[in-house]
Amino acid sequence: MVAARGFRCLVPTWPLGAHRPAMRAGADLSPRGVASLVSELMHRMDLDDVTLVGNDTGGAICQFVVDASPDRVGRLVLTNCDGFEIFPPFPFGLLFRIARHPRFARPLLALTRSARVRNGVLGFGLLVRRRLSAGESLPWVSSYLQDAGVRRDVATFARAARAADLAEVGSRLGAFRDRSCSAGRPRTGSSGSRWRTGCRPPSRQRGSSRSRGARTFVPLDQPSPARGGDRLVRRVNPIVRYGRTVRALVPCVADYRSVSPDDGTRVRRWRR
Description:
alpha/beta, 6-stranded parallel sheet, 31% helix
């Protein structure tokens, strides 16, 4: 939908479990390492003034990107995603711990071969409001189940993910304060009471918007950038979108210069 309106949209596949082929053994697939892949893509394609959109775990990666190499990023848009010391939020921390050991994770994830399990409350059902089709969600797990190299990649990322690292990065987002916004619907009940307290993110974002009616996978629940973000002007240059769901569309695009920081809008801190 965004590309149809004349925007240049890049939707790369990042090594978080739905990718093929697997990365080479020994590749740096820590959150910072994956963030360096995002930066490398922007450099090799000579992209400037990029609007970087992060959803779910991708929001955490985007924060690592702007912390380490913000020069090519013109704007940062964070939808429902990990943030501060919540990386990952409950109960996904348990899944991360299991994913560190592919020998145990593969039999457990093998249950997702069943569409009923995969799209139910034990799979992706709690992350999206609308009903998923069997064919839609199958590519999200098939690479992991079929390729030992992909399972190794996921284990490498899960072992390196540290909440303290993201909290440290979050404390420095103020340096990017005039180029950030958030567009998301905070979820309740999974990440603790701190996240239920209404406040502006520490980056003093230039714009914010609620994506009502969407759960974690905002690109699937609300693929149109106009929904929940009418005040965010969609007049941008290249877009690099990072996220776990490879085929999802960019959820929201914003021009930070067009949104007043004093509009009285209050947002809750980013949540998965």
